[in-house]
Amino acid sequence: MMPEPAPIVRELLAFYLEAGVDCALVEEPVDRLAEADAPPPVTRAAPPPIQAPGFAETARPVAAPAVIRGEAAPAPDVAIATAREAARTAPTLEALRELMQNFDGCALKNTATRLVFADGNPQARIMFVGEAPGRDEDIEGLPFVGRSGKLLDLMIGAIGLNRTTAYIANVIPWRPPGNRTPTPQETQICLPFIQRQIELVNPDVLVTLGNPSTQTLLSTRAGIMRTRGRWFDYDTGQRVIRALPTFHPAYLLRSPSYKRLAWQDLRAIAKALTPA
Ligand code: URA
């Protein structure tokens, strides 16, 4: 008698889910075991640094040179150096978006559906930065559109802001598979892009949402319980921006009792935006 296949498929799917696989990358299954052994990866030399004498001269979007689609991923230090050089030459947000679209130095891009660049008003006086897109953001291509995004909308709405008066982005612009925590290397590779984005938006107030965004952008090792509600200086190199860490909305969904403290932070943000 043939075994009943359904439970096996169910078990396999449950295994995939637990392993963090929750979406298919292609329509047809690929039998990786049947593939011929891959040739050894070709070692690539580090790219020459991009000459970026001034933004006026580099007004074209700069494609990341070390990393060409379909080739083996570069060493992380090469990817970080490439991201840094490329990001600092992006003269506008549009150029930065295009450059990130063409950048293949972060492996997260291979599993994400699309780039999640930003949402909101680039002229806004306030910018919120989260950690990384989740499933809903990966589908829509916009940050904070899932459950935690709905709460973020309510939070900023409580101080009279919305997506036409605020700008929203993430440290990592590609969804980590299964929403796993981005690795320190992935964060370092993506960091120059969000730093350049902050520099180009040039808000009066920067709000870091949760621990990873706070620790990465504000160079602190202190946890969110210690950093939240405290003003930091964020130096873009051109200007010092006031930065305030607060709880990530996903954390508030899990621990609603902290909404009281988040409200204090929101009031501080509203006050900072009010002309004296
Ligand atoms: N969490 C984040 O940090 N960013 C998003 O865009 C969504 C959820």
Structure write-up:
The protein has helices at about 5-20, 75-90, 95-100, 110, 135-140, 145-155, 185-200, 210-220, 225, 250-255, 260-275, and strands spanning about 120, 125-130, 165-170, 205-210, 230-235, 240-245. The protein is an alpha/beta fold. The protein has one domain: Uracil-DNA glycosylase-like domain (Uracil-DNA Glycosylase, subunit E), CATH 3.40.470. Mean pLDDT is about 85; it is low at about 40-65. Uracil binds near residues 132, 134, 144, 149 and 250.
Model regions low in confidence, pLDDT < 50 over at least 5 residues? 40-66
Order of helices and strands: HHHHEEHHEHEHHEEHH
- Strand tally: 6
Return the CATH architecture. Answer: 3-Layer(aba) Sandwich
What would the principal axes of the Cα set say about the shape? globular
List the total number of helices.
11
The ligands bound in this entry are: uracil
Instruction: Quickly name the level 1 CATH class.
Output: Alpha Beta
CATH structural fold name: Uracil-DNA Glycosylase, subunit E
CATH H-tier superfamily? Uracil-DNA glycosylase-like domain
Secondary structure class reads alpha/beta
- When the domains are counted, the total is 1
Distance between the termini: 81 Å
Give the helix proportion (percent range): 25-40%
Give the radius of gyration.
21 Å
Strand order of the main beta sheet, please? 1-3-2-4-6-5
Largest sheet: 6 strands, mixed
Short description:
This protein has 276 residues and is an alpha/beta fold. The chain is 39% helix and 10% strand.
